[in-house]
Amino acid sequence: MNLRPAESSVADEAAPAVAVLAGGVGAAKLLKGMVRVVPPARVTAVVNTADDVVLHGLHVSPDLDTVTYTLAEAVNPETGWGLRDETWQAMDALDRYGAPTWFRLGDRDLGTHLHRTGRLAAGAGLAEVTREVTSAWDVEAILLPMTEDPVATMVTLDDDTPDGTEVGFQDYFVGLRHDVPIRSIRFAGAQHARPGPGVVEALTDASTVVVAPSNPIVSIGPLLAIPGMVDALKARRSDVVAVSPIVDGTALKGPADRMLRELGHEPTVVGVARLYREVAATLVVDRADASLVDAVEAEGMACVVADTVMTDVEVAIDLCRMLLATGRPPSGGGR
Ligand code: FO1
């Protein structure tokens, strides 16, 4: 079931278009609210693909799938990724063969990876396959991969080797449970990647561009590393609103606070402002960070305080209403 206020209608075409820069779980929660506030077909999520990984010969796109399953009300509510009511027989079978099973792919989820891998091998682009997947899940929002070119987040661990050992993102995030110090991050391939089909147009045409409360380094960072993305956002800076994923110095999910610290950034909303001020005019921070509003504004961003911890869809809806009001030009105009 796709959560939406009403069936799409011709009037929807006049509704403002919204673009959301998205990683995984945090972005998915925000998007669930956004499609209740704006007709879903007017919501475009530009989704990180630098976490993508090939396992057992299958192309897995965790962030695209997390957003799809969440909007389809099919996500596993305990983990925030994967499908609810999953079974794990394929993993048990792989275990029997001694194959690696540290990255858990449920039986139903495997269907998505089988379809994606087969279609990519047959020559379809990732954007086209993503349309097929979202359509099959009755998701009306538009999900665009940030690029169709190969981009991979690589993490250099701060271990006792002279240069640090470099591992793929999922090896760090899942394999090592992001429980080891890191020295640096790079987005392999990003410098030669092009924005995916429709991405620049979505950013240009939206009345508001929202940066979801995703990890600024490894979820939003890859999007910004693709040539042309920063320029497209800078051209719209006054309409770009970012939501801080750091609340009271802590990441709500995942290692964003720790990564910020280890990579030399301040693990607070002020550190987030320094990462986004070039591309976004406004930073939304949680009430817990109200005392840091002046410090954020000193970094050159307007700062708005709101409830950002999306414990349920109602909080997400209120947050999205506020984001759209914030991103709307004072004249009441818009695209
Ligand atoms: N995260 C885990 O912590 N452990 C897993 O075994 C795991 C499997 C998995 C399978 C499919 C999928 O779409 C996501 C999965 N994730 C898993 C989540 C994923 O590693 C991360 O949440 C994202 O890459 C970060 O946004």
Name its key features.
disordered N terminus; three-stranded antiparallel beta sheet; alpha/beta; 335 residues; seven-stranded parallel beta sheet; 13 helices; disordered C terminus; binds ligand FO1
Can you describe what's shown?
The chain has 335 residues and is of the alpha/beta class. The protein has helices at residues 25-37, 62-71, 89-96, 107-121, 126-136, 169-175, 199-205, 221-225, 229-234, 256-262, 269-276, 293-297, 313-327; strands spanning 18-22, 43-47, 53-55, 58-60, 142-145, 152-157, 166-168, 182-188, 208-211, 240-243, 246-247, 250-251, 282-286, 302-306. β13 (282-286), α12 and β14 form a beta-alpha-beta unit. The two termini are 29 Å apart.
Order of strands, main sheet, comes to 5-2-1-9-10-13-14
Report the portion of residues in β strands. Answer: 15-25%
Structure summary, number of beta strands: 14
Distance between the termini: 29 Å
Mean pLDDT: 94
Radius of gyration: 19 Å
Poorly predicted tracts of residues: 1-10, 331-335
Envelope shape: globular
